[in-house]
Amino acid sequence: MEQNQEWAQIIRMHRKAAKLSRVQLAELAGIGKTVIYDIEKGKESVQLDTLKKILKVLNIRIVLKSPLMDYLQNSENEKS
Fold it and tell me: Is 42 helix (H, G, I), strand (E, B) or coil?
């Protein structure tokens, strides 16, 4: 599945589970309602700040995962 379609599916699923319309989600996130429609249709260009507002309303967290992130986390744990 293409990355944009995956994001679209995740956001649509969470919005519907929260029983929010696109307009309601847009209002809660403080963005235009067409942005929600565009994202759910897999539009490619969405600003990160806008996406973060939507994810916050839907209680979705982004986790960065890489070998370097693991190293950083282990280094922080060793300092504690």
Answer: coil
